[in-house]
């Protein structure tokens, strides 16, 4: 076996391959020393972590009873209300249209103006209509002249007073006298049959003339009446060149000092050519508004005409009072709701038609509704419950809640006994049958 090559080291006595061992053990010794130093000096990073405070242990009374606070179930009078949202409308909303065709001469009112019935809104050029009135007046005068009249006669006018009829009446009377005289002479033989026949013919002709004149007078009178109607229409059209505010025929609530309209839209300008039926202005009576509410049909039996309503809007920071005015007897098949109309007084015009409003219709008052403090109900796993205290133990009672305020809430179901005690704190530690004790409240002394 061959011997390994042992070359003397720099010191002459040690072999050259011994230096790695020395380095290894030196590094190991240094590492151990550092570890011992760090351990002893407590410089590990893990020791610098802050510990979370321990959760407080549930407060329990001696004998493992949970300390809670309790209050008494109280009956209170509660005002029942049906809540709904709707839109405000003017008491009356009117679209004023032109009745005649023409060019707008002047616009007297604009959006936002307050107007009263009869006030002028828009004026249409009246020249053509004035000429038409004059033409019809002349035509009427011609027909009156034919009858020998200056003014249109009344309904009891006697046609025999017409000059032409009077003339024919005189002729008829003359021929009748001649006929009577000739008839008397005929008996004595003083007149020939030819003369008698001539007188009789004249009388019959006079009768026909009189009847004809009566017919002509009657026709003339009818023509006068026709011309009167034509003239009245022409005058009406002339008056309609002035578009005025309409006058309501029914009484308007809140208008004891007179009906006032607000102009909400103006559709024409000066020089605009309008035709009959074109929109001119839109008006609204807004001193009393109508709030139309879609109410679910299940509340129909509770709502009656005359019930008070509390109305709130985003524009006002306070509620306003209204009254149920009308209830639609039919249910909307699309929404299954009943439309309820509420009259809302608006004497200062603060509310605007077209606005959104919430309403609470005050239907009835329950004198003894069962209520508990707002902190009594406890929700867990999707159910709401309260804990009743009976002989030092609690009973878990699922409940259905109703009306709520900032201090109490109504329990609709089940019917809790009046005077029962309910837990108002510590519900998370309770279960059905848990023993409890009442926490004593210590009031701080006032300085």
Task: Give a summary of the structure in a few sentences.
This protein is of the alpha+beta class.
What's the number of structural domains? 4
User: Average pLDDT value?
Assistant: 84
Protein structure class: alpha+beta
Q: What is the count of helical runs?
A: 4
Overall form: elongated
How big a fraction of the residues is strand?
A: 25-35%
Q: Features of this protein?
A:
447 residues; alpha+beta; conserved putative lor/sdh protein from methanococcus maripaludis s2 fold; Elongation Factor Tu (Ef-tu), domain 3; OB fold (Dihydrolipoamide Acetyltransferase, E2P); 4 domains; 5-stranded antiparallel beta sheet; 22 strands; 26% helix; disordered C terminus
Could you describe the 3D structure shown?
This protein is 26% helix and 34% strand. By secondary structure, it is α+β, with helices and mostly antiparallel strands. The protein has 4 domains: 66-77 and 367-438, Beta Barrel (conserved putative lor/sdh protein from methanococcus maripaludis s2 fold), CATH 2.40.420; 82-91 and 287-366, Elongation Factor Tu (Ef-tu), domain 3 (Beta Barrel), CATH 2.40.30; 92-125 and 242-283, OB fold (Dihydrolipoamide Acetyltransferase, E2P), CATH 2.40.50; 128-239. The strands form 4 sheets. The chain has a 6-stranded antiparallel beta barrel. Strands 3, 16, 17, 18 and 21 form a 5-stranded antiparallel β-sheet that branches. A 4-stranded antiparallel β-sheet has the order 8-7-5-10, with no helix packed on it. Helix 2 packs antiparallel against helix 4 (193-239) and helix 3 runs antiparallel to helix 4. The chain is elongated, with a radius of gyration of 54 Å.
């Amino acid at each position: 076996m061959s011997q390994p090559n042992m070359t003397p080291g720099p010191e002459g006595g040690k072999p050259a391959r011994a230096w790695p061992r020395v380095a290894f053990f030196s590094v190991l010794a240094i590492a151990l020393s550092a570890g011992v130093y760090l351990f002893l000096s407590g410089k590990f990073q893990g020791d610098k972590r802050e510990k979370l405070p321990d959760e407080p242990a549930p407060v329990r009374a001696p004998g493992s009873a949970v300390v809670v606070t309790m209050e008494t179930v109280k009956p209170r009078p509660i005002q029942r209300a049906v809540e709904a949202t709707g839109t405000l409308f003017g008491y009356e909303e009117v679209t004023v249209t032109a009745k005649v065709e023409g060019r707008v001469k002047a616009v007297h009112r604009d959006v936002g103006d307050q107007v009263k019935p009869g006030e002028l809104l828009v004026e249409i050029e009246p020249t053509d209509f004035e000429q038409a009135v004059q033409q019809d007046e002349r035509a009427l005068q011609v027909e009156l002249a034919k009858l020998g009249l200056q003014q249109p006669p009344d309904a009891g006018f006697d046609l025999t007073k017409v000059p032409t009829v009077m003339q024919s009446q005189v002729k008829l009377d003359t021929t009748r006298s001649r006929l009577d005289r000739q008839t008397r002479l005929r008996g004595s033989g003083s007149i020939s049959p030819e003369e008698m026949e001539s007188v009789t013919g004249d009388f019959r002709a006079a009768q026909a003339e009189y009847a004809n004149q009566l017919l002509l007078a009657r026709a003339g009178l009818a023509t006068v009446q026709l011309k009167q109607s034509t003239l009245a229409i022409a005058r009406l059209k002339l008056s309609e060149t002035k578009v005025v505010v309409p006058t309501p025929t029914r009484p308007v609530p809140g208008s004891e000092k007179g009906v006032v309209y607000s102009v909400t839209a103006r559709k024409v300008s000066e020089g605009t050519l309008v035709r009959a039926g074109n929109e001119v202005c839109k008006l609204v009576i807004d001193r009393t508004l109508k709030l139309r509410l879609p109410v679910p049909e299940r509340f129909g039996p509770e709502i009656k005409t005359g019930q008070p309503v509390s109305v709130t809007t985003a524009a006002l920071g306070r509620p306003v009072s209204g009254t149920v005015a009308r209830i639609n007897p039919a249910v909307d098949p699309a929404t299954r709701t009943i439309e309820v109309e509420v009259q809302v007084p608006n004497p200062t015009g603060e509310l605007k038609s077209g606005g959104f409003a919430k309403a609470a219709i005050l239907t009835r008052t329950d004198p003894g509704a069962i209520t508990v403090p707002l902190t009594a109900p406890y929700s867990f796993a999707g159910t709401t419950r309260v804990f009743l205290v009976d002989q030092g133990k609690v009973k878990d009672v699922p409940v259905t809640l109703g009306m709520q305020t900032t201090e109490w809430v109504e329990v609709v179901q089940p019917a809790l006994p009046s005077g029962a005690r309910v837990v108002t704190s510590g519900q998370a530690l309770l279960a059905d049958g848990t023993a409890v004790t009442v926490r004593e409240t210590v009031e701080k002394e006032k300085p």
